[in-house]
Amino acid sequence: MIETLRIRNLAVVESAEIEFGAGLNALTGETGAGKSIVLGALALLAGGRANAEVVREGADEALVEAVLRTDAAPELEAALRERGFESEEHALVVARSVGREGRSRAWLAGRLVPVSTLAELLADRLEISSQHESQSLRRPESHGRLLDAFGGLLDVRERVARGHAALRAAQSERARLAADAEQRARQQDFLAFQLGELEAAGLLPGELDALGLEHARLVHASELRTEAAAAAATLTGDAATEGG
User: Phi and psi (nearest 5°) for 83?
Assistant: First the structure.
């Protein structure tokens, strides 16, 4: 499944690239040769925990990349399609980085994804086990896949996965349409209320223009009263002068 593994600035490894062949691949070497670092790199790609201690001394970040073959994993390709990913020519590029400050990022098929996505897709396919334990057997979500593989039902599993993805998409679309219908109903009720208010007001043609003129007159009412009072005072004063 793993075609190529690249490691940069992880633990004591500055740079390494490993090409895997078909079938069984064995990593051998004396203590300190770096076998555990390779396993640690695979654990990072499977969504395992990471901290700043894995970054090589003097480097800003550690980076692990791998090219995975998916032609023999139809259930993985189905899971990828369900999430909107496509593996070109059945090859999937996965990457994980860990910064000096401890921040971790993950990429899948060139797109930035949550680290949890790597765990969901790859944790039970990149299994790392010690002598007396199996990590995948401790995860209930992996039991169905193991049973389907044992029963030769992986093709059926893929069809069911595609059908389930289509069902989820249809349910989401139905929910969206229902929400749109509710919004339209609320808008219709509001417009009907506004129409009723306008009809109850009994407005006449041209009334808006007349109200505008009246409003303009009333706005200047205070000024008009002042000017009228001044004019009246002037006229009264003139009349008194003539009478005297």
Answer: -95, 5
Q: Give the separation between CA 44 and CA 35, rounded to whole angstroms.
A: 15
Per-residue pLDDT 10s for the chain (244 aa) are 789 999 999 999 999 999 998 888 888 888 888 888 999 999 999 999 888 999 999 999 999 999 998 888 888 888 888 888 877 788 999 999 999 998 999 999 999 999 999 998 888 777 666 554 555 666 777 788 788 888 888 889 888 988 998 999 999 999 999 999 989 999 999 999 999 988 888 878 888 888 888 888 888 888 888 888 888 888 887 555 555 4
Residues 112 and 191 in one domain: no
Contact 42, 5 (CB under 8 A): yes
Do 102 and 48 have their domain in common?
Answer: yes
Q: How far is residue 143 from each of residues 137, 149, 162, measured CA to CA in Å?
A: 7, 10, 19
Q: Domain limits at 17?
A: 2-139
Q: Is residue 116 domain-shared with residue 81, that is, in the same domain?
A: yes
Q: What are phi and psi of 125, to 5 degrees?
A: -115, -20
Distance, CA of 154 to CA of 82 (rounded, Å)? 16
Q: Are residues 14 and 126 in the same domain?
A: yes
123 belongs to a structural domain: yes
DSSP assignment string, 41-60: HHHHHTT----GGGBPTT-S
The C-alpha atoms of residue 94 and residue 3 are separated, in whole angstroms, by 11
